[in-house]
From TrEMBL:
Residues 10-179 form the Lipid/polyisoprenoid-binding YceI-like domain. It holds the Pfam family YceI. SUPFAM superfamilies: YceI-like. It comes from Brooklawnia propionicigenes. This is YceI family protein. InterPro entries: Lipid/polyisoprenoid-bd_YceI, TTHA0802/YceI-like_sf. Belongs to the UPF0312 family.
Amino acid sequence: MVDAAALTGNWTLDPVHTRLGFSARHAMVTKVRGNFDTFEGTAYTDADNPGASHVEVTIQADSINTNNEARDQHLRTNDFLDAKTYPTISFKSTKVEKLDDEHVRITGDLTIKATTKQVSIDFEFGGVAQDPFGNTRMGFEGSLSINRQDYGVAFNAALETGGVLVSDKVDIDIEVSAVKLVDANA
């Protein structure tokens, strides 16, 4: 069992050790995977009162990376994310629930292209550790699926064999390494 004091406090996402990834079906036969390379996030966790916890994440939409520059450029256009008009994607929690000692559900507002929808993400707790540099780290992994049409991400093309070029369903995978902020008053 992890000490409540180790879990309680302010945290920041470590972008080098955190992955905000996604996948969607392409031509209905395979998946294209990618992630966002530029983001920032903060959290406050309260081990004794999980409902007092909260999370905020801001993603730079133009940092989308599928390891194919031509596709990434297309994903940045109005056909998909319209990154020039809507430079950020954001998530702000509205509710945090402890499901058991290893799982938490975070519900909040996901905003893409100025459209906000409530989503819930179930996370598995990875633990708390002290890194070699004296930082306290906490890890979580979670996932959810969204319908991109709900956010105005509507581009598609019909295939001769039936189906469409890009699935509406997008699976989002989140692997978090958060670093506890040191209280200057401690």
